[in-house]
Structures are given as C-alpha cells and as structure tokens.
Amino acid sequence: MNHNVSAVSTQRIFPRLKEIVVVNSVTLSVAALVLFTLMVYFPVFSHQFQTHWDDQWVVINPYTENGLNSQNLWAILTEFYKGQYAPLNQLLYTILYSVFGYNPFWFHLAGIMLHLCNVLLVYFFIRRVLTRSGDFTLVSITRISFFTAAIMALHPLLVESVAWISASKILIYSCFYLVGLHLYLKYLSSGKIIYYLLTLLLFICSFGGKEQAVTFPVCLLLVDYAVNRNLKTKRLWMEKLPLFLLAFLMGYITLLSQSADKVGLLSNSRHYPFYQNIIFASYSVTEYLVKCLIPVKLSYLYVFPNAIGEEVPKRFWIYPLLLLIMLFSFWDFWKKKWVFFGIAFFLIHIAMVLHIIPMARFAMVADRYAYLSSVGIFFLVAFFADKALNQTKHIRLVLTLVFLYSLSIGIYAHQRSKVWRNSDTLKQELKDLLEKATIPQNNPHQ
After folding, report:
1. Contact partners, residue 199, CB within 8 Å, separation at least 6
2. Is residue 117 within 8 Å of 175, Cβ to Cβ?
3. Which of these, 446, 421, 424, lies nearest to 436 by C-alpha position?
4. Which among 42, 223, 240, 279 has the fewest CB atoms less than 10 Å away?
5. What does the alpha-carbon distance between residue 144 and residue 345 come to, in Å, rounded to a whole number?
6. 365 CB neighbour count, 10 Å cutoff
7. pLDDT at 22
8. pLDDT tens-digit map of 264-275
C-alpha cells in the first residue's frame, strides 16, 4: 500500500517539478534577453534624427505633422509617398509626434522596444516550433531558442534597423510577421478558425509596415514542414490560397507605389539587365550570409559596383559559380531537416531584396534588409552549438567559444550603435573606411 502511494506521489511530483524548471528557465531567458538588448542599445536613447540620411523626409513630413484626424489617416492609408507604401509605419510616427512632438528620444525608444519585442517573439517562436516538431529534448529546445534570440539581441548587423528611425519599417513588419507566425502555430494546435483569421489580419498588418511581408505564405509552408505536417494534403494548400492571393495583391501594390515615383518594374526607368541582376543577387546572398556569421566591415552604404549600362567588374562573376559549387557539393548537408529549415528561413526573407526583380534601390546590400532573414542563420549557429554541447568531452571548449562569440558581437554592436548618433558621426565612419582603403599601409603620413 505504501509503495503504491509513493509511486502515485512520484508521478504527480515529477511533472510539477518539470513545469517549475521550464517556467524558471523561460523567466531567466527572457530577463537575460532584455538585459542583452538594453546593454547593446543604451547609447541610442540619446541619439538625434538623421537629418541628412532620410529622417528629414521619412519621419519629418506632412503626414506626421497633420495629426490623428480622419482626413490625414485616410491619406496615410491610401496614398503613396515618394515610392513607398508603409501606412502603419507612418501611423507610428504620427502618434509619436502627436504626443511628444519631434523629440528623438521617444522615436528611438519605440524602435528599441519594437526590437526587444521581436527578440522575445523569435525566442518563443523557435521554442514552440522545436517543441511541436518532437525532434528535440527539453534541454536542446531551451538552449537553441535562447541562443538564437541572444544572437539577435547582440548582433551588430541588426543595429541599423534599430538605431536608424527611418528603418522602423523593418521592425514593425517583423513584429506583426512574428506575431502572425505565433497565431498560425496556435491555429495548428487548436484547429480554431479564429486563429487562422487573425493570422490573415497580422499578415495584412505586416505588409502595412513594409513590403517584405509578402513572403509570409511561403514561410508558413516552411513552418508546416518543420512541425511535420503533410505538405501534400489539399486542406493545407487551401489554407494557403487566400494568403498567396493577398501576397500577389500586395506585390502589385508595391510595384504601383514605386511606379508612382517613376521607378521600379512598372516604370519606364532604366534597369540593370537580367544577367547582372543574377550576379548582384548571388553577391548579395553571399554577403548577407557572411555578415550574419562574421560581421565585419559593416557600413550604412554599400553601392552597386557599376552604373546601369556599364559592365559588371569581373570579380563579381565568381559569386554565381561559388553558390552553385556550394549547393551541389554539400547537397546532402543542405537536405537535412533543420539545416534546410535555417537556410530556407534565411533565403525566403532575403529573396525580395536580391534585385532579381528591379526595385527602387540604389544600394546593392543594406544591413537592415537582413533583419528577419538573419534569424535563420542565427538558428543554425545555435543548432550546431547545441549539437556540440551534447558531446560532453567538448563542453568547456564550446561554452568558451559561445561566450567569446557573444561577447565580441555584443561589444561590436554596442560600439556600432554609437555610430548612428547623428548624420555627422554616421558619415564620418564611411570617410574613415574610405581613407583606410586608399592610404597605403606602409606610409602612414600620407
């Protein structure tokens, strides 16, 4: 009798202990992620507007100043502004100005809070996907989700999106996008149609932040794959049909917004030839991938190597070939489920800014465009770090490398956040880089 009572008590206590451990690990993880984010971006609270780098028209404009009245709100929702359509981003500026005026502190505070929300949303998203997949232990789920989000909090490649007020479109679209992914997972677990409808709504809101949101339906298919749904069922594709129709409509609206400013695919403006677009896309993919892993020589401006009508420098032809070699040489590696998940997440969210479709951009690469796509690479770093930690003989070495990597990117991000203090400090950085590139290293007096 006593033995049976003891067994029953043990069965009740163990799940309770497991629940306590999970709650505590989540609480500690969230607290650490908040701390990391604030440590990196603390200098941004005192930053000014970039009055010579787009804030003077993206943020400071009539839509911001005309206030929260019906006429201005209708204009924000229905009008294209200098080739852009981002009504929810503009609405944020209008609200902030209506309450605080042009005080940059509140605009920067909003950006940092949005980034913090995104970091936490990524943490819980990875945690939920890995849990639902059934492929990982609780320890691995905890480590992978935390380290993925920690890299996002600390990585210098993301500083531009957070420290530059005009880049808040990235933060807003990512926030709604990630909430939409959570609602979709809720729909999968509950089967309730309300969560599907809310997913649709969040998709629309995400597009209201930035046009990169059009990739959302493809990302949902990747989520389906990760959580082991059967991709061949009719129901699954019928679920996605409304989202794909919305995505095509959103893509058309984006092209219209650009043509209204006489740029983009639907305009009569000159474009690079298609073969050059493929070369630029190959270079961009490589550059974003390298900067996600090893963030070096970051800048606010990466220009095209040639003007329209000119030939691409010969060195850029290596990138399409390099990608093809990597693809076929490591094909078996890329096909592994969670490697594919990370790479696909990266490619899906970077696809819209690779210049394959002519867009109104004068920069070949921009740090801010990798904001959401970088999560796929951060996930892979965390995934392989976890696999290494499972090899007990290498635990100390792996932990040391993880610590040093996190510390180095965090310090770089903190220092880089200071570069965005104002337009003078921002452009001085580019001048310094150009001087280092042109002055011979063996003659420091030139």
Report:
1. 180, 183, 184, 187, 220
2. yes
3. 446
4. 42
5. 16
6. 23
7. 62
8. 666 667 778 888
Which pTM does this prediction carry?
0.90
- Interior/surface letters 416-434, b for 16+ CB within 10 angstroms, e for the rest: bbebbbbbeebbebeeeee
What's the pLDDT tens digit per position in 155-185? Answer: 999 999 999 999 999 999 999 999 999 999 9
Query: In this structure, what token pair is assigned to residue 108?
Result: 């920067």
Quickly tell me which residue has 């492929």 as its tokens.
Answer: 135
Does the pLDDT of residue 310 top 50, yes or no?
yes
The two tokens of residue 135 are 């492929």
Report residue 272: phi and psi, to 5°. Answer: -70, 145
What percent of the chain is predicted at pLDDT more than 70?
89
The token duo for 132 is 């639902």
Tokens 């932040």, located at residue: 209
Instruction: Find tokens 């180095």 and name the residue.
Output: 408
Q: Could you tell me where the DSSP H helices lie in 330-366?
A: 331-334, 337-350
CB neighbours of residue 358 within 10 Å? 19
CA–CA distance, 378 with 365 (Å, rounded to integer): 19
* Cβ neighbours for 112, distance < 8 A, ≥ 6 positions apart: 37, 38, 41, 44, 45, 162
Domain ranges for the chain = 27-438
- Output the six-digit token pair for 35: 């701390």
Q: Kindly calculate the radius of gyration of the chain based on its CA atoms and give it in whole angstroms.
A: 23
CA 262 to CA 275: how far, in whole Å? Answer: 23
